[in-house]
Amino acid sequence: MSTFQEAAPPVTDVPSRPWSGRDDGPGAEHLRWHHAVVLDPGATEPGDVAFVGFASDEGVRRNKGRQGAAQGPDALRRALASMALPKPLRALDAGDVQVTGDADDALEAGQERLGRAVAHLVDAGHRVVVLGGGHEVAFGTYGGLERTRALNAGGRLGVLNLDAHFDLRDEVRPSSGTPFLQMARSEARHGRDFHYRVLGISQAANTETLFRTAESLGVRYLADTECGLLDVARVDAFVDEFLASCDLVHLTIDLDVLPAAVAPGVSAPAAYGVPMEVVERVCTRVARSGRLVVVDVAELNPEFDVDQRTARAAARLVHRTVTTWA
């Protein structure tokens, strides 16, 4: 019996719906994601991938962005479903945490539920992928890692954010712009160093206050202008230095790190952005490190997508990360 079967079920509001997609026939040579996903936790074992959705627009609304990311988890599943697998694997879809209602603490309550689900899945031995949702998803994911046995046993947590923004805003109410300052403060309360790195920062999208906040917290970053196709050696060195500083990695991908032509369906499309080739290279490098524990994908907004470009880009990044990691 697997560890997952022995534990309480993860805390989600909506069970996942069955996955479907192209079917070319039976056998491993025809495997696609929709063949690999199961909805029954009892059919999984430690080491299997686990998806959990975070259907939230509330953080984006509070941050005065374009709403629609609550539909992101389903759009990402649809884009991923027919992608062909290079090898057999199995994945659990644990369903969605939904942030709805008019309560003042709806977002915070949703992040708490997501944290419990992530902690449960990680402690059960799963490789966890969280499908957002606005970038407020990152603090919910982190709240789960805080509860895990590995972190509480003294593992050094590192957070790598692929993003045009620092998301270090100091606001009265948490939003999609505050998750990493919230993490920094939580790490300080626990007496831990804050290992936070950002790849893809846009100078034009971050005020001097945010740059000063990053400096005061010891945040290292690469600007989008330093992450082009001719800069891969610099990017590799940045990622390798980060990986050497931690034992456990939380990789968080805000899709607005990509150029708007690749990812138009986000809250804040990037006029410049980091090439898809570079972002995918970083994801696979982190997945191969042996340190990755959880990855979340944020800001997929189907309402503003064009020809499913953003959903397909997000699915490609999840696909490459998981098939390298698994």
Describe this protein's structure:
By secondary structure, this protein is α/β, with parallel strands linked by helices. It contains twelve helices and nine strands. The protein has helices spanning 3-6, 33-36, 58-62, 72-81, 106-123, 137-147, 149-152, 179-189, 208-216, 232-244, 276-288, 309-325; strands spanning 37-38, 49-55, 91-98, 127-132, 157-162, 195-201, 220-223, 248-254, 292-298. Helix 9 links the parallel strand 6 and strand 7 (220-223). Helix 5 packs across helix 6, helix 6 packs parallel to helix 8 (179-189) and helix 10 runs parallel beside helix 11.
Compute the number of strand runs: 9
Shape: globular
Question: What is the tally of helical segments?
Answer: 12
What is the overall pLDDT average?
A: 94
Reading the helices and strands in chain order gives: HHEEHHEHEHHEHEHEHEHEH
Q: Which class of secondary structure composition applies to the elements?
A: alpha/beta
Q: What is the terminal-to-terminal distance?
A: 21 Å
How much β-strand is present in the residues?
Answer: 15-25%
Unreliable sequence segments: 1-8
Q: Summarize the main sheet.
A: 9 strands, parallel
